[in-house]
């Protein structure tokens, strides 16, 4: 009898966890530098799933890949420009990505001499400071940190140069049912400017990144001149 009750308790617990992971929250680990300085390698995030509604990509543990494709979402809603969103890579299913939503369906997006242009309007950008960080190979990277104003919100980006390989692009027109994603580390981000990602179907959105649980980012002790991100615990994201 005790074993039967234990099995029942465990079954209810697993069901509750599955429902929470499907409908409410997910956690995400930052593996790359594409969102520096907003997110550092090693940051742990809380992602809320209700913001954009639910699709097969909302299911945890990759279970949604066994379901047929669909361009509809239950309680679907468009993201807002500037949201930091986690999504399932459209060309590499099962790979979670995180970028900032820049272009919505019907928008035109272009990068011109390093400056972001949305619907023909250049996005205001203000220089904040010189910024230096150590990449994952330990190399010292010197960049400039800017505040970029998307009208609905301001956020920070970094640029090594305004003459990089993706600093002059064609004009992208975002198709219906898709969004255009960029990393905040503009010269080190495999995002919608490149054919390896391109436009992201709204169906593939998993959720909105809300909170940094904690940051494991550290600066080398011998590199006191580097701009070291502050330690964070339960910090809200912008």
Give a written overview of the molecule.
The chain is mainly beta. It has a single domain, classed as Umud Fragment, subunit A, CATH 2.10.109.10. Helix content is 9%, strand content 35%. The protein is built from one helix and 15 strands, in the order αβββββββββββββββ. The strands form three sheets. Strands 1, 2, 3, 4, 12, 13, 14 and 15 form an eight-stranded antiparallel sheet that branches. A four-stranded antiparallel sheet has the order 7-6-5-11, with no helix packed on it. A hairpin with a 2-residue loop joins strand 5 (108-112) and strand 6. The longest helix has 22 residues, at 2-23. The radius of gyration is 19 Å and the shape is globular. The N and C termini lie far apart (52 Å).
Layout of secondary structure:
Blueprint: H1 2-23, E1 25-29, E2 44-48, E3 84-88, E4 96-103, E5 108-112, E6 115-118, E7 121-122, E8 125-134, E9 140-149, E10 154-159, E11 172-173, E12 178-182, E13 200-201, E14 205-214, E15 233-236
Antiparallel strand pairs: 1-2, 2-14, 3-4, 3-14, 4-12, 5-6, 5-11, 6-7, 8-9, 9-10, 12-13, 14-15
Kindly state the mean pLDDT as a whole number? Answer: 83
Biggest sheet descriptor: 8 strands, antiparallel
What is the highest CATH level, the class?
Answer: Mainly Beta
Number of domains: 1
Q: Span between N and C termini?
A: 52 Å
Outline of the structure:
By secondary structure, this protein is mostly beta strands.
Descriptive labels:
eight-stranded antiparallel β-sheet; four-stranded antiparallel β-sheet; single chain; 35% strand; 238 residues; mainly beta; 1 helix; Umud Fragment, subunit A; 15 strands
């Amino acid at each position: 009898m005790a074993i039967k009750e234990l099995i029942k308790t465990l079954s209810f617990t697993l069901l509750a966890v599955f429902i929470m992971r499907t409908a409410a929250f997910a956690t995400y680990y930052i593996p790359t530098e594409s969102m520096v300085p907003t997110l550092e390698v090693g940051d742990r995030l809380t992602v809320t799933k209700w913001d954009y509604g639910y699709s097969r990509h909302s299911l945890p543990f990759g279970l949604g890949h066994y379901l047929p494709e669909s361009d509809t979402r239950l309680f679907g809603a468009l993201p807002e420009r500037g949201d930091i969103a986690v999504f399932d890579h459209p060309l590499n299913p099962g790979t979670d990505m995180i970028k900032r939503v820049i272009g919505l369906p019907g928008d035109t997006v272009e990068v011109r001499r390093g400056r972001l242009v949305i619907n023909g309007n250049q996005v205001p950008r203000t220089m904040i400071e010189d910024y230096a960080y150590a990449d994952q190979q330990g190399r010292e990277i010197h960049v400039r940190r800017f505040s970029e104003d998307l009208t609905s919100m301001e956020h920070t980006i970094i640029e090594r140069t305004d003459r990089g390989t993706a600093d002059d692009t064609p004009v992208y027109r975002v198709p219906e049912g898709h969004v255009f994603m960029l990393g905040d580390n503009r010269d080190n981000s495999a995002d919608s400017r490149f054919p390896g990602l391109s436009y992201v179907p709204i169906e593939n959105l998993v959720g909105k990144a809300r909170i940094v649980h904690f940051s494991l980012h550290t600066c080398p002790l011998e590199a006191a001149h580097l701009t070291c991100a502050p330690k964070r615990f339960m910090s809200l994201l912008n």
